[in-house]
Amino acid sequence: MTVLRIDVETYSSVDLIKCGVHRYVEAPDFEILLFAYAWDNDPVEVVDLTAFEDLPTDVYDALTDPNVIKTAFNAAFERTTIAKHFGIECDPLQWRCTAVHALTLGLPGSLEGVAEVLKLEAKKDARGKALIKYFSVPCKPTKVNGGRTRNLPHHDVQKWQQFVEYCRQDVVVEREIAKKLERFPVPDHEWRLWALDQQINDRGVRLDPELFKRAIECDQQYKDRVMQEAKELTGLENPNSDAQIKGWLAEHGLVTNTLQKDDMPVLLDQAPNDETRRILELRKDLGKKADKYEAMDRSICRDGRARGLLQFCGANRTWRWAGRLIQVQNLPQNKIEDLALAREVLRSGDYDLLEMLFGSPPFVLSQLIRTAFIPSPGCRFIVADFSAIEARVIAWLADEQWVLDVFRGHGKIYEATASQMFGIPFETIVKGHPNYKYRAPGKVATLACGFQGGENAMANMDKGKEIESSEYPALVKKWRAANPNIVKLWYAAEEAAVRAVREKTTVKLKHGVRYRYESGMLFADLPSGRSLAYVKPRIKPDPKFGKDGVVFDGMDQQSGKWVSHRTYGGRLVENLVQAIARDCLAESLMRLDSEGYRIVMHVHDEVVLEVPIGTGSVEHVTEIMSRPIDWAPGLPLAAAGFECEFYQKD
Fold it and tell me: Which residues does the UniProt record annotate as the domain DNA-directed DNA polymerase family A palm (predicted)?
């Protein structure tokens, strides 16, 4: 099939990074400046649209021709900008994204990052950022530039020519990357899934502007009040300054090097008196931000919807989705009982009543973030998620039969785990019975120990601090004794990965999973037909455990840098389980779409559907999600759901 490679340079007065491409193209001054393209291996051509040049007819026609595959690095940008500029539909089924292809192989998500890791001769033009800043974003009016707010080609002809060459070079680099990656193709079914992902992102989800604007206003009013109280108590000019507040605390008997959120509970316990405790509480409130509400305000489109909230393969170790803009993948849970009343009080602007009824504004506002997502008129949300999906997948992968039996039966995995761990009758682990106390350690151990977690994992999962920390080591041993096949899976996965790298071979695990070394990469082949990738794997001694282990290169999710990672059995199994769980969600998304359900977003293992009133049902949706999957025979899936007039956590 013919391939047309594309890169565009654009202008808009809207901030692309902060607002997203869908809001970006809605600016009245949005336009495509340069359109670079190449047919297959032909030379790259650049069309200067600012000079009133037209796209060649064959190129323009190809944009909507299903027999021509269009490719770009971060194709969502090209698709969206081209569709807007030319007033055409860019069907994602006709596109391929080279950035996504790179992410599937564990590579960076940026053009320059991939080119560097692959050591390509063709490099992204380093002048690009400065040129984009000059031509693609507004500039500040000054006496030197004649008071203009935008730089046009004639303002610096030399820079413009550099910009043209920069655009051309991006197509050269993208093509070189695509050629390097083509030996490891993305399965066709994943490109169909990506096309659905693009449709979901294009569709977007409706927001309640009255709610998020009031939330921003409420937050600012509360911050002003807190700042004033802190100034009066401390006499400081800026109590939000780390240096100033640390100095004040030291003068009042509390010396600290940190004011981080995670350290606040300890500092509050150490506070020598009520005054310092109150200052710490105020400082804690000043540190809370209405980031998500502000992101809603920036990214909402003219029709009241936010788009582009999900990044396909954003968590590239497992191919799970990542959040963008509003970051829907890490929304706070809601625990206020009367959410409807709380959101209506907020919308009314009566912030004093809101605080009186529901508590501190930062707490209430965090509880109401989800409720800012609302269905279209005449619709309601159906929200459904998989039940204990990771526990089901790991039991299936390990052939932990008693766990599978639980999920095929009553499904009460925490009680069943407690029964196995402590040797007590399952039926006695009910409220009111003394043995109910064992449910908490059964739950925490289930959540903490599946991926070779120990005492630290127990502590992280024991959020309610229901268990004495001294009990953690014994509970870890009990859980492992109750789940011997899962324990065996950790060591089998590690042994298979090490052997595959050391011998440059393929080692089968079970249920269609195998570790395969090929062309300097370690692949974990999954039952769904795709593979996880570990770049530049090698065997290195692990001094901590006195044995050899696998080390590979990859992105650090926190720093964004390309670094070396050490992995082990539990981590390898975690990758497998999360990847298979992701594939189960992918299967459900395709099935729900084919049944006519409008998916507006999905969060981890949960789908959010916008369904016209009088059509569809929770029962139908959960039945679709619970259906067996051909590539995972014997995996017991189950889903639960509910309807709502605004998004929430059930």
Answer: 366-615
Orientation angle between helical segments 389-398 and 401-408, nearest 10 degrees? 140
Domain ranges of the chain: 2-186, 208-299+332-368, 401-482, 579-644
Domain 2-186 has CATH 3.30.420.10: yes
- Cα–Cα distance for residue pair 583/547, rounded to 1 Å: 33
Model pLDDT for residues 230-247, shown as the tens digit of each residue: 999 999 999 888 899 999
Separation CA 650–CA 642 (nearest Å): 7
Tell me the pTM: 0.95
All residues at 6 or more sequence positions from 221 whose CB lies less than 8 Å from its CB, including other chains: 351
Q: Write the pLDDT tens digit of every residue in 10-38.
A: 999 999 999 999 999 999 999 999 999 99
How far is residue 641's CA from residue 385's CA, in Å, rounded to a whole number? 6
Residue 628: its H or E element = none
Is the CB of residue 113 less than 8 Å from the CB of residue 217? no
Torsional sign, CA 274, 275, 278, 283: negative
Q: Is 555 left (phi over 0), alpha (psi -120 to 50) or beta?
A: beta
Residue 170, CB-side half-sphere exposure with 13 Å CA sphere: 29
* Distance (Å, whole) CA 585 – CA 216: 34
Instruction: Classify burial at 3, counting beta carbons within 10 Å of its beta carbon; exposed 0-12, middle 13-18, buried 19 or more.
Output: middle
Helix axis angle for 209-234 and 339-348, nearest 10°, is 80
CA distance 449 to 475: 10
Closest by CA position to 229, among listed 267, 274, 286, 272:
286
